[in-house]
Amino acid sequence: MKPQPKPVPEPLPKPPVPKPSRSGLVRWALRRTAGALLVLLVVTVLVFAATEAAPGDAATARLGPQAPAGAVEALRARLGLDRPAPLRYLDWLGHAVRGDFGASYANGRPVGELIADRFGNSLVLGLAALAVLVPLAVGLGLWAGLRAGRRGDRIVSGTALGLAAVPEFVTGAVLMAVFAAGLGWLPAVSLLGAGQGPLDEPSMLVLPVLTLVSVCLAQNLRLVRAGVAEAARSPAVVAARLNGVPELRVAVRYVLPAGLGPAVPVLARSVAYLLGGALVAESLFGYPGLAALLVDATAGRDVPVVQAVALLGAAVAVAANLAADVAVHLLEPVRGHTR
């Protein structure tokens, strides 16, 4: 008796892709943008209130606690600190909207110039960390999620848990002790000379970048892995495999978009953290970025600099989360097809 040929599965039908109207997308984008601007407005109030609530002021910090009361009051008047707080807030907000953050109380330089000098350094450090973080988190998360429950998945997930359990300053100190003090391969500090940029000596970026990546990698990797593992068990993916779709195409077309959805908001927070100035890493390695500027300004009660840096960090965070909302909105139809 001749063996019966195996039936060939029918081609996988393509599910209809919902196409929202252009006007609906515009309204959605306008609502999200309005919400982001409202959050920024609330942040300006909180930043101003926090600097007002801090003990002392710039006049006392500049002249010292033993200075005569008359000299302190004269300096307060010259700096405008004797005006009512609501008026000073409105005045600061009006100038900040135009990009004018005033002058530093410490040295009289425009705050915009001080931030521009440091923001470029923080931007280079953050982009370098992102260039390492995103491929690692997405690649390892996809690899582990497609092997959920196997040895490779357990190794990757366990390593991620270990990284998440170690504080950032401990990781940085260990890296410094091993690769700088022990092996002498990399510089222990990331100080820049006059007129020198971080890209002039890329080796000084390695240890801060590794420290930052160790902080952000664990959570992003685990979220991608969880999303990929769930998507890999979905009916659409199972049907695609039964119909002979190549595994690489299944992973890229069906699994990865669905797996990225849960990780995008957390990745956005990582972007804000990295680009807004990572305080511990910059302080530990002496890197001249925004975080170091914020520490110095806080110690000297240089309120205009503190307010500007805090507002810039909040703006980066809000923009990153708005971009994450857009990405999740675009990925949602693809995720819906894998459920």
TrEMBL record:
The protein's matches in Gene3D superfamilies, at most eight in alphabetical order, are given as: MetI-like
Q: Name one GO cellular component term.
A: plasma membrane
Recorded hits in SUPFAM superfamilies, A to Z, give: MetI-like
Grouped into one coarse class, the protein's main location is membrane
Q: Where in the cell is it found?
A: Cell membrane
Q: What is the membrane topology here?
A: Multi-pass membrane protein
Task: Could you list this entry's UniProt keywords, alphabetically sorted.
Answer: Cell membrane, Membrane, Transmembrane, Transmembrane helix, Transport
Q: Which CDD domains does the record match to this protein?
A: TM_PBP2
Residue ranges of the TM segments: 123-146, 158-185, 205-224, 271-295, 307-331
Residues annotated as coiled-coil are: none
Q: Does the keyword field hold Transit peptide?
A: no
| Biological process (GO), any one | transmembrane transport
Q: Where is the composition biased (Pro residues)?
A: 1-19
Entries under InterPro entries matching the protein: BPD_transp_1_N (IPR045621), MetI-like (IPR000515), MetI-like_sf (IPR035906)
Could you tell me which residues belong to the region Disordered?
1-21
Domain ABC transmembrane type-1: start-end pairs: 119-324
- One short Pfam family name for this protein? BPD_transp_1_N
Q: Which family does it belong to?
A: Belongs to the binding-protein-dependent transport system permease family.
Q: What is this protein called?
A: ABC transmembrane type-1 domain-containing protein
